[in-house]
Please model this.
Amino acid sequence: MATSKVLAGARVVLPTGTVSGGRVIVDGTRIAGSAPADAETLDLTGHWLVPGFVDMHNHGGGGASFTNGTVEDILHGVHTHRLHGTTTLVASTVTGDMDALAQRAGLLSELAEQGEIAGVHFEGPFISPCRKGAHSESLLRHPDPAEVRKLIDAARGQAKMVTLAAELPGGIDSVRLLAEHGVIAAIGHTDATYEQTVAAVDAGATVATHLYNAMPGLGHRAPGPIAALLEDERVTVELIDDGTHLHPAAFQLAFHRAGADRVALITDAMDAAGFGDGTYHLGPLEVVVSEGVARLAEGGAIAGSTLTQDRAFQRAVTVDGLPVEDVVTAISATPAKILGVYDRVGSLEPGKDADLVVLDADFALKGVLRKGEWVVDPK
Ligand SMILES: [Zn+2]
Model:
């Protein structure tokens, strides 16, 4: 049961900066402003205390897929990511046939209503065959607004984001429809030019789905979607910082151009995250995971990641050399804001859910608290 506790002695990363020897008070499921008399104190001297991580793009973990798994599988996948610090997670689907996706949306929306996940992200089928990555080409379709509407309706208010290639017929109208319904239109798996991408952002697109991956590269005469998405203050860019999807220099370029307020550190994780090497499926396609890198069995395209957000955090600080506060912003606050849940999660402030992560001096995960209960007990 959630009890009152005072977490004392750690370096606490607050929205206003880092406090050494700070205290975070947890009363039941929430962060509180003052400690009840019966609160137990936990000494976390030598540790960091940061907000729980928010993953807005995640296909599964622990051997389970959010696209194909049973309810039990999905909950297991969600729990696997909680063990790695992700206390808020949007479940992403991959391309499937429309009826199957609508059915999946119904099932995922129930889990969202129960508070297990923070909503649904449809990645495909409205994406470009030229940039299909690990999506089945035969199931891809143009972004017809009526069909986009069908999917978001099937999610009963829990659709958070749709990734689409806005240069395809119906693309701009679909972006407008999503924006009107309060669903994030995310540009990704796209073959758009710079100009076409600018038009999509002007129509209401606000997220870049894993910037750089599954889109034309940054050219000096044809800057493509990357430049258009990076330069526009209205756009939040997702980055997969696993050392495989992006060259460290490309990561740095994007992070510093957009700034932590416009970067969301995502996993794009598939089943093998938190599980191990082997053979898996991403939708109908076979994926082989070797040394933690997931590739399609046929063709060898990168097929999602096996990243967890604790590793992304540690890498961003210790390998990329980013300030801890910027990493906290990009892994918690920024995704929470774009998802519209920053009033409840994404920072350590009184009144918010008691979701937090304890890290040691080397930024290795030592504890995870979700809604006031230890998922990983630091003791
Ligand atoms: Zn994905």
User: Anything to note?
Assistant: The radius of gyration is 20 Å. The chain has a mean pLDDT of 95. The chain is about 25% helix and 25% strand. The longest helix spans residues 98-113.
